[in-house]
């Protein structure tokens, strides 16, 4: 029987030092171990593991979502730290001036905005 005792997510980057700076200083995540990569503490007991890979290729999809109570405040705070939000032409709804796709008002899912880490991995902040 498959009964995992814990779970965590992981993905690669091409520059581990840039990743450490981005995830700790811009996103405010707590680094708990850096002996074999970067292990971060996430809300609700979750963990994230980031590792260096010489031939890293960023994913073409969202690898990590941050659920927030107020997306406007979250986007503003991240922009204030230098995070740049992505714009996509092929979305089911339009993104506003902040880069937020307003899914709640259109009854099309959460309000969501995407950004990239220094390695090009796609991350998102969303309010549902």
Explain how this protein is built.
With 128 residues, this protein is α/β, with parallel strands linked by helices. The protein has one domain: Roll (2,3-Dihydroxybiphenyl 1,2-Dioxygenase, domain 1), CATH 3.10.180. Helix content is 16%, strand content 30%. The chain is built from two helices and eight strands. It has helices at residues 16-26, 71-80; strands at residues 9-13, 30-33, 38-41, 47-52, 62-67, 101-102, 111-116, 122-127. The strands form two sheets. A four-stranded mixed sheet has the order 1-4-3-2, covered by helices on one side. It has a four-stranded mixed sheet with strand order 5-8-7-6. The longest helix is centred in the first third of the chain and has 11 residues, at 16-26. It is globular and about 45 Å long. The N and C termini lie far apart (34 Å). The model has no long low-confidence stretch (mean pLDDT 94).
Q: Which CATH first-tier class would you pick?
A: Alpha Beta
Strand content: 25-35%
CATH topology: 2,3-Dihydroxybiphenyl 1,2-Dioxygenase, domain 1
Q: How many domains? A: 1
List keywords for this structure.
2,3-Dihydroxybiphenyl 1,2-Dioxygenase, domain 1; 128 residues; alpha/beta; 2 helices; 4-stranded mixed beta sheet; globular
